[in-house]
Amino acid sequence: MVAGRSSSSRRDARRRLGGALAVLVAGALVLAGCAGGTAETDAALTVSASVSPSSTPLPTGQSAARAVVPQGEPMTVAADLVAPWSVAVVGETVLVSERDTGDIREIVGDTTRVVGTVPGVVFGGEGGLLGIAADGDDGLFVSATGPDGNRVQRFDVSGAPGSLALGDAETLLDGIPSARTHNGGRIAIGPDGMLYVTTGDANVPDLAQDRDSLAGKILRMTPEGAVPADNPFPDSFVYSLGHRNPQGIAWAEDGTLFASEFGQNTWDELNIITPGANYGWPVVEGQGGGADFVDPVQQWSTAEASPSGIAVIEGTVFIANLRGERVRAVPVADPSTATEYYVGELGRIRDVVAAPDGDLWILTGNTDGRGAGPRDGDDRLLTVAVG
After folding, report:
1. Which tens digit of pLDDT belongs to each residue from 228-274?
2. Where do the Glucose/Sorbosone dehydrogenase domain residues begin and end (predicted)?
């Protein structure tokens, strides 16, 4: 295990997003005519009774932001991506990670180019280059599978948009248990400025209940790779435990942390994460109703879900679904309910992202070796307005 860089303060995290938005709008207009796999009409469906509400109480101060939903058809921004996994905006540029190539690509007009290849990535199954998150205007946090397990690294990003370059790797944390499946891999900076990382159980379910293991957890660290003094367990990166394979984390306006999680054969989950809480795996899958574990606020059959990335825009949690091939919209004010969009129209959906201008970005996952396989132009990054 490595705890990485030591510095007294973070870089200035100001954002210059005008260029990123201009790139997306221009790319979407150029590619709109090629987006044959996108939705032809709004495809909202009311969720059936298979969605099971939870008795888990909502945090006090629950966000009162208005719920928003997709408006109209998604437009293609970038096409022909290879097993894309995550999206980040660094400075003025939109970056996408590719799981099976190890490449970080930047969107340049109606095409993409390789910014750099993350070194030492071990590919196979669900492992590879996974989540990315911006560190201000000139840095990128990366979650990837290495020869000694999953790891968290930071890279400098230099150059002008259209000619960015990836610097050397700085390892913040390594030795996270890995396997061909159940690697977690989502990474995000929270509203508290801390770095959060989801980890799977690496196909050893009991690790999720072992507080000394980094597997089956949501981890919290400083951007320099140290254990925050206010973490729930002393000298531990563990923020929550009892997770099977969480792949999405996002915060509501009031600071509530939501996380999506793959179940085994019965239930996939949406959870509200609180520090030190235990979410039950492998003792419980879905809503168990016991006093020892926190129930999900919503659960779905695995055929309807396989939830990966999530995003919060105003008062709505948007959830990308792989096997379920849909975007699910969950009101923050009542997370026991949901509405579904683009069911079966885009194929597998790996990630959803809150765009800097308030739109929703959708990242498909049809070239990852699962499902029916790619369609013309896959994989894609798409954009759709919400309101």
Report:
1. 999 999 999 999 999 999 999 999 999 999 999 999 999 999 999 99
2. 83-370
